[in-house]
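Input:
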Amino acid sequence: MNIRRRDLTAAWLRTFAVQGSWNYRTLVGTGIGFVSLPLLRKIYAGDAEALRAAVERSLKPFNCHPYLSGMAAAALARVEMEEDLETVERFRIALRGPLGRLGDQLVWAEWRPFCAVVGLLLFLFGVGPLLAAAVFLVAYNLGHVWLRWWGFQVGWKAGLQLGKVLQASWLSVAAGKLRVVNQFLIGMAGPLLATRLIGGPVYAALWPLMVAGGSLALYAYRWPTRGRRLAGVFLLSIPLIWWLT
Amino acid sequence: MPVPEIVADPGEWLVLVLLGALTGLDSVSWPQVMTSRPLVAATLAGWVMGSPSAGFLCGAALELMAMLYAPYGAARYPETGPASVVAGSAYAAAGASTVAPLATALLLGWALARVGGWSVQLQRRVNERLLLGPSDLASRPRRVEARHLLAMAVDGVRGALLVGAFAVPAMLITGLSTLGVWAPAQTAYALAAIVLTIAVASGAAARRAAHGVQGWPFFIGGAVLALVLLRLGAVQ
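Output:
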C-alpha cells in the first residue's frame, strides 16, 4: 500500500468524468467506482480477490454532487485503507445524502445562476458576446475546479472524520449567501433582456404590456412550476396565432 | 440547386455537430464546465454562423428559461447544450433581424431541449445495461473503466446526433419564417408573447435560484432599477 501523489491526481482527474455512466439503479455509484480505481489498485496491490471485493463495494448505489464526488471517493479510499469492512459500508451509506444536498444548494441553486446572470448583464451593459460568455465560463469554473480540488484534499485528509470537518467548514456557512443577490440580479435581467430582444424599450407606450409582464413575473415567482408552463404556452401561441389569424 | 444562404455549409455543419458532441457530453458526463449552458453553447453556435451576438441573445432567453431547472439527484430536466447549439445557429443564420426568427428559434430550442432531456433518460437506461448488465464486472477492473468510457462516448454521439439531425431543419424553418408575411397585429402579439415569456421565466428563475426562499422585494427591486436605467437611457 503505497499511494503516491500521482495516484491521487489520477483519481482527482477522473472526478471530472464521475457521471459518465450515471444510471437510475446506482445513480453515480458506478462513477465512484471509476474514480476510486487508481486508489483501490494501490490499496489492494497483489491481492486480486480483495481488489475485486473493493471494486464491487465501490460500484454500489451512491449519490453526491459531482463536484464533491472527489471528496467522497477520497474519504472512502482512506477509510478502506484504515478501517474494517463494516465501517467502510456504514461510512458509505452515511455519506450518500449530505454531499448531494450541500452541492445542489451551493452550486446549482446559487453559484451557477449567479455567474450566468452576471455574464448576461455584462452583455446587456455593452460587453461583447464572446467576452461575456467567457467571463461566465471563467468565473464559474474558478469556483468549480477549486471546489473539486478542495473537496478531494479534505476528503483524503479527513477520512472517517469527514462529517465533522464538513460541519465546521466554510461550505456549510457559504450555502445561502447568494440567494438574495441572485434574486436582485435576475430581477434586473428580465426587463433589460426583454427590451433588447424586442429591439426597443418595453415601457414606451407599452405600459399595459409592462403591467402584464410585472404581474406575470410575480405570479411565476409565487408558483414557479406554473410559471414555466406559461413560458412554453406563450412561445407556442406565437406560431398558432400567426397561422390562425 | 444552390444551397440557400440560411443553411450552414458542410464545414459549418460539421463544427456545429462537434459542438453538439461537446455540449452533450458536458452537461452530465464530462467535464461539466458549463459549455452546455445556453449562454455559452448558443453564443459559440452563433459565432460559427457569423453572429455571436445573435447566438448570445437567443442563448440568454433560453438561459433564463433553463434556470428554472436544476439537475438534483435523478430529476428530469430539459437538456440545453445541443438544443442551444441548434437554436443559436438557426437564429444567427436567419439574420437575427425580426421577431419571426427569434420566436421560431426560441420555440425550436425549447422543444429540442425537451427531446434532449428524453434522450438523456434513454442514455441512462443504456448506461444501466453497459455497467450493470455483465455479471462479475468487478473482477475485471479494466472492463469497468472501458465500459464507463464507452458510456461517455455514447453520450457524445447522442449530442452530435441531436445537432446533426436538427440543425439544418431548424435553420430552414427559422429562415423560412422570415419570408412569411406578418400583419402588424401578429408582430405586436409575437413581441408581447416574447416579453411575457421572459417575464414569467425570470420570475420563476428568481424563486428557484433562491432555493425556494422568499425574497420578492429584491426581485422587484432589481426590476425597478432596470426600468429606471432604461428610462434614463443608461442601457440600450
